[in-house]
Structures are given as C-alpha cells and as structure tokens.
Amino acid sequence: MHKSIFLDSLNNTQEALKSITLDSIFIGSKLFSTESISSLRSIVKDTHIYADVPVFCGEDLVKLFPDAVIIEAFGKDLVKDGISFVCPTHSGVREYFQKRITDLLKLDINGIWLDCARYPTVWDKSNPIIYDTCYCKRCISLFEKHIGEKIVGTTLEDKFLHIDGSYYIEWLRFKCDQITSIVELARKTITNSKKEMKLGIFVVPWEDSEYSAGIKRILGINIEQISPLVETVSPMLYHKMCGKDVEWVKEKVNYYWNLGKPFLPLIQTGDVSLDEFKKSMEFAILKPSAGVCVFYLDDLIKQREKVDIVLDFFR
Ligand SMILES: [Zn+2]
Fold first, then answer.
1. What separation in Å is there between the alpha carbon of 57 and the centre of ligand 1?
2. Bridge partners of 296?
3. Which residue, among 230, 218, 141, 219, has the nearest Cα to 184 in the 3D structure?
4. All residues at 6 or more sequence positions from 132 whose CB lies less than 8 Å from its CB, including other chains
5. Beta 198-203 vs 48-54: how paired, if at all?
6. Which sequence spans correspond to the domains of the chain?
7. pLDDT band at 307 (very low <50, low <70, confident <90, very high)
8. pTM of the predicted protein model
9. Which residues surround ligand 1, an ion (CB under 5 A)?
10. What single-letter DSSP state applies at residue 31?
11. Labelling 78: which of 133, 135, 206, 286 has CA 20 to 30 A away?
12. Tell me: the pLDDT tens digits for 202-248?
C-alpha cells in the first residue's frame, strides 16, 4: 500500500513528518526552492517528494495574463466569484506552465502532480457551482478553425446557442483536447529532460454520467485520453465536502477500477468524525487502489486521535 500525505506548509509539519512512515509526500510547488527541498529531504530521506503544480488556476496567473480571462456562457463573472482560473488556450499560460515544469525538473524531487488541469467549476460542494466556459474570442476562433465553420451570432448567447445546438460533441472534444494537450506537454517536457520523474494528475471525481457528462462537457477532462500519459491518477475523494456519506469513497474506488492503471485517492481530514475518518481510510485503500494520500497534514496534526489512526494504518 502506498502511504502518502499532503502538506500545506513546511513550518509546523516537520515534527509530525518524522513520526509517520511514508512512501510519498505532496506539497504545493509554490513552497519549493532548492533550500526548502534540501531541508525537507533531510527529514524525509527516502520518501518521495511530489510537487502539486496548479496548471490553469492561481492568482499569479490571473495577474500575469490579464488577457487570459475566462468567459462564461451565461455571463457569470468568475473573478467576482473569487475563481482564479485562466483560459486553457492562452499560449502565454501554456509557455509559463512549461517553464515551471522545466524549473521543477532541476530540483531534488520525484514527481509532478498536475492540479486544476481543467476548466473551472466549484465541484467540492454538495451542490456544485457549474461554470460553462470558455467562450472568449480566442477560444471561439480556435474552435471555428477546428470545425472549419463560422460560429454565427452577435451576442455571447447567440454563439453559445449555436455551439450547443449544432456542435455539442465537437465542442466537448475541443475542450478535452485543450486539457489533454497540456498533460502531453508536461509528459514531453519530462521525457525530453531524461530525468526520472513521475507524472500524476489530481482529478475531480465526477463519473461520466454525472452533471450531463460534466466531466468532459464542463471540465474538459477525458480520463481515458489522459490516463496513458501519466503514471498515477489521483481522484480527490473528499466525501464530506461533496455532501456524500463515507460509503461513497468505496463506490469511487470501485469506479476507478476501469482505469486499468494505478490510482492514488485523496481523503479529507477535516469535518469528519473519527469513525468516519477511519472508514474513509479503509475504503480508500481497497483494491485496486494503490494506497491513500491523506489531505492534509497541517489539519491532521490538530487532531491527535486522527494522527493515531493514520499511524495505525501506516505502520
Ligand atoms: Zn478562452
């Protein structure tokens, strides 16, 4: 069983790290520097260090690329809603991403996990907030080239209706291509570097049939296309946040059996009872899961009994 934990910071977590036997730790790539990695390495020794790399989200990206603003079909203002996502077709965003991967390849780490490699939507809620994106001029123009036809209409609504009515499948595939191609770019950059580095991806745990094929239509994630490009897929099974009971973790582990490749689910530490937390650990590691990543250590160490549960599983 692969034993893993997610760190949100490097400050208060070092003592706890020494006491838990782990195969890997995940940490936000923004906390990375040569110094921080060597200090972490001195504590975790042989444990793999994986970088969580935000692809299309982050306030830094929104500031750096103001012309990569995401356009929503019904005029919802994502920036106003506090959603810091950028448009996946923006070439500057894509070049910036490749540079980040290249920089990470120089560090003493073992893996790169893509986060927010998708179109925006608030999925980790009982009632997700769905955003139908991106209808910016660049995306529409690229899509017109893709289908070899003009999208007609003077307003955003006209264009949305034309696409939705006449090119539903083509649009869905076009969106998935934007996301798959960024994963391909990461894969290619790693392969060309000749450095041994795992590539993984965090995925929203929506099934094909949910939210009217929302995994592809809304998020642009074609898991069948993406999974051959990565070593591990990591579904974020935060059952409580998603308004589900703990049995849902078991159902999802069963669902990802279809992938036919290793997957490492994440489970949440917050807002769950001890019994529920223990059950979520039990369910997350059921076959064919490769193990579990506990999300996250900074929260876990505030709850001594949950640390004991993890220690018991990770003996
Ligand atoms: Zn766009």
1. 14
2. none
3. 230
4. 72, 73, 74, 160, 218
5. unpaired
6. 9-63+86-123+179-230
7. very high
8. 0.97
9. 87, 134, 136, 139
10. G
11. 206
12. 999 999 999 999 999 999 999 999 999 999 999 999 999 999 999 99
CA-to-CA distance for 171 and 213, rounded, in angstroms? 13
Amino acid at 235: P
Q: 71 pLDDT exceeds 90?
A: yes
Which H, E and C letters describe 62-81, residue by residue?
A: HHHCHHHECCECCCCCCCCC
Closest C-alpha to 44, from 64, 67, 18: 18
Does residue 15 surpass a pLDDT of 90? no
Distance 146 CA to ligand 1 centre (A): 14
- 180-209, pLDDT tens digit by residue? 999 999 999 999 999 999 999 999 999 999
Report the separation in Å between the CA atom of 247 and the middle of ligand 1, taken as the mean of its atom positions. 38
The alpha carbon of 231 and the centre of ligand 1 are apart by a number of angstroms equal to 29
Q: 257: CA distance to ligand 1 center in Å?
A: 33
Task: Quote the distance between the C-alpha of residue 291 and its chain's center.
Answer: 18
Residues 6 or more apart from 216 whose CB is under 8 A from it?
172, 175, 176, 208, 222
Band of residue 12 on the pLDDT scale cut at 50, 70, 90: confident
